[in-house]
Specification:
This protein is an alpha+beta fold. The protein has two domains: about 180 residues, Gcn5-related N-acetyltransferase (GNAT) (Aminopeptidase, 3-Layer(aba) Sandwich); about 170 residues, Aminopeptidase (3-Layer(aba) Sandwich), CATH 3.40.630. Helices cover about 35% and strands about 25% of the residues. The chain has 13 helices and 13 strands. Strand 11, helix 8 and strand 12 form a beta-alpha-beta unit. Helix 6 packs across helix 7. It is globular and about 65 Å long.
Length: about 375
């Protein structure tokens, strides 16, 4: 790319106009203002959009701005996969040239580093040369273009038994949109699950977060709940982006005393059916805790035979300042070898490392009885 002077980069507000402008790109719910606004407070920052343009082709990047010392700041992505949206007609060289200009722009604005989670589906083919794409592990996706019989055939036997057991025990399901009433029911189930697994405080999202999602993204969120004798015993939230055809599991939980009934397996089965019937292309289930090939990964693999790579993108904007911040923490030699990014924030968030390096919420399904 020889005419870099033709690249323009600017900050943009994350608002309804932003939402309208990204419609021409292959986006997901995590790129919309409703999601970013609801989630930004959890990340200790404020939402900000970056738009770069080259030959009428645009790149959109939503970030969360986090202050460091009043002079410098860094950028992260909000919870989920709010990855770069890159015009599909841009070549690799053009995209890398644009990111070089984004780096210069952010340097002048006082940014030290940029971290964002790449979308396993949208960014599947992107291999940057400016900055680094760091591979964490595998993540699982259900192909919703398959038939009902094909889905059942790729469901592992223990999951089939769990689904049949739930149905035999008269567990029923309900599919609805989030609202003020069912948020209270979901929140109670979810928090009991987080307490059961001793999750970090970060994962105890309050009702204001859920109400914010419901208010701004009402028609893009699905609540699938399981009931026994009229009582909600398990519930999961799924995101739905009709434009890209992507559904994703967000959060879920099961009441402790009802785990033996296998309700979450039934919920996943029902959500997959709903996605197929409503002509979505993919249901992204995620991977293991911290992207490990653990029992949670194996649980999800029971519903899907397709895996993709989960990656994060890391770009050091201001190397001298980055090094100075790392030095000021006083890491020992072993800590300096950590893959955490940005490294200078590791101490502050060491207890919630998965917040930065992985989009996985610790989930309850791994402990359900066979």
């Amino acid at each position: 790319m020889t005419d870099m002077h033709k690249v323009t980069v600017e900050f943009r507000d994350i608002d309804k106009k932003w939402d309208k402008d990204i419609l021409n790109h292959n986006f997901d719910i995590y790129h919309l203002s409703g999601w970013i606004t609801a989630s930004a407070s959890m990340d200790g920052g404020r939402p900000q959009g970056i738009v770069a343009e080259y030959k009428n082709k645009k790149l959109f990047l939503p970030i969360i701005v986090r202050d460091i010392d009043g002079k410098y700041w860094d950028a992260t992505s909000t919870y989920g996969y709010s990855c770069p949206l890159i015009d599909e007609t841009l070549t690799d060289d053009e995209t890398n040239g644009i990111f070089e200009e984004v780096r210069h722009f952010l340097f002048k604005a006082g940014c030290v580093s940029l971290f964002t989670r790449l979308h396993p589906i949208i960014n599947k083919e992107w291999i940057p040369s400016v900055g680094r794409a760091f591979t964490h592990g595998l993540t699982l996706v259900c192909d919703l273009t398959k038939s009902k019989d094909e889905h059942w055939a790729e469901t592992q036997n223990q999951h089939r038994r769990g689904i049949k057991k739930a149905l035999k025990m008269d567990v029923t399901t309900k599919i609805e949109r989030l609202n003020e009433d069912n948020i209270k029911v979901f929140s109670k189930i979810y928090k009991e699950t987080m307490t059961h697994i001793n999750a970090d405080d970060y994962y105890f999202f309050d009702d204001n977060y859920f109400n914010g999602l419901s208010k701004n993204l009402y028609d893009r969120l699905l609540l699938v709940s399981a009931y026994k004798d009229g009582k909600a015993i398990a519930s999961s939230i799924y995101t739905c982006c009709k434009e890209s055809g992507i559904m994703q599991f967000h959060l879920g939980g099961t009441l402790n005393e009802y785990r033996r009934l296998q309700p979450s397996k039934l919920i996943t089965h029902v959500a997959r059916d709903w996605g197929r019937q409503n002509h979505y292309k993919a249901l992204h289930l995620g991977g293991g805790v911290g992207s490990n090939l653990d029992t949670l990964y194996e649980y999800k693999k029971g519903f899907s035979s397709q895996s993709l790579l989960f990656k994060t993108y890391r770009l050091i904007i201001n190397q001298p300042e980055y090094d100075s911040l790392v030095d000021s923490v006083g890491f020992d030699e072993e800590e300096l070898d950590s893959d955490f990014f940005p490294l200078y924030r590791q101490i502050a968030v060491k207890k919630v490392q998965t917040v930065e390096e992985s989009p996985e919420i610790v989930e309850e399904e791994v402990v359900e009885d066979a």
